[in-house]
Amino acid sequence: MQPQRLKKAITDNSKKLGNLIDLVNLPSPLRDFLGQSQISRLGCFMRVWSYIKTNNLQDPKNKNVVNCDEKLKSILLGKQRVELVDLPSLIKLHFTKTPPKSN
Fold first, then answer.
1. Which one of 18, 66, 99, 100 has the largest count of C-beta atoms within 10 Å of its C-beta?
2. DSSP 98
3. Architecture (CATH level 2) of domain 21-94
4. How far apart are CA 96 and CA 50, in angstroms?
5. Phi, psi for 63 (deg, rounded to 5)
6. CB burial class (10 A; 0-12, 13-18, 19+) of residue 57?
C-alpha cells in the first residue's frame, strides 16, 4: 500500500513520472558508459550512482562531491568534480526532449 503523499505525487505528476520511467534510446556517450542502448532516465541515474558507489568516487572529506574518473567524465561534460545535487541535471542533458505524439 502506498502512502497518501506518494499516491498524490504520482497522480498529480503522471506525465513527469512517465518521462522518468519510459525507455529511451541512449546517445552514444551514455550507451558506451552503460553498455546498453535503451534505459529510462531513472534507470540511467541509478546505474551512474551505482558506478560512483562501486568505484568509491565520492570525496572522502565531503560526501556531497563526486571525484570523476575518466569514464565518468565522458558523460559529465568532462568535469573533474561534480556536486551530487548537479548530477541529475548533468545526466538529463543527454536526454533530448521528444516532440509530443500527434493523434
1. 66
2. P
3. Orthogonal Bundle (1.10)
4. 23
5. -65, -10
6. middle
Per-residue pLDDT of the chain (103 residues; tens, 9 = 90+): 445 555 555 455 555 544 555 677 777 888 888 888 888 888 888 899 999 999 999 999 999 999 999 999 999 888 999 999 999 888 888 877 655 555 4
Q: Interhelix angle for 41-54 vs 14-21, to 10°? A: 50
Q: Is 84:64 a contact under the CB 8 Å cutoff?
A: yes
User: Which of 15, 12, 22, 65 is closest to 42 using CA atoms?
Assistant: 22
67: its cell numbers: 571525484
SS3 content of the chain, % helix, strand, coil (to 5): 50, 10, 40
Amino acid 2: pLDDT: 45
